Amino acid sequence: VQLQASGGGLVQAGGSLRLSCAASGLTFSRYVMGWFRQAPGKEREFVAAIISSGGSRDYADSVKGRFTISRDNAKKTVNLQMSSLKPEDTAVYYCAAKWGDYDTSTTRYTFWGQGTLVTVSS
What we know:
Blueprint: E1 2-6, E2 9-12, E3 17-24, E4 31-38, E5 45-50, E6 57-59, E7 67-72, E8 77-82, E9 91-99, E10 111-112, E11 116-121
Parallel strand pairs: 2-11
Antiparallel strand pairs: 1-3, 3-8, 4-5, 4-9, 5-6, 7-8, 9-10, 9-11
């Protein structure tokens, strides 16, 4: 199984970025997909998740109204559209996959991508 995250970069506060994660080696349409992030010196934290059908989503309170998670099961991709970015959004962003219901805990996710760095300047 491979999860390849991309789309990170440097952006000014208030700007937008779109992260993508391409999956291979798993029956993508059966997995919950999540995005997590880890800032320097901090633990990895939940950002957003979307169920296998794409019909339901969950977000961390810190990103609600600014981030949108979506998926394309035909293309085996999951995206994270980030808007109104803040310096505190600076982190390495990881996509992850799990079987069953979505969950905010990192320990519940089975497969992880390598991460993509997002830096938001003030």
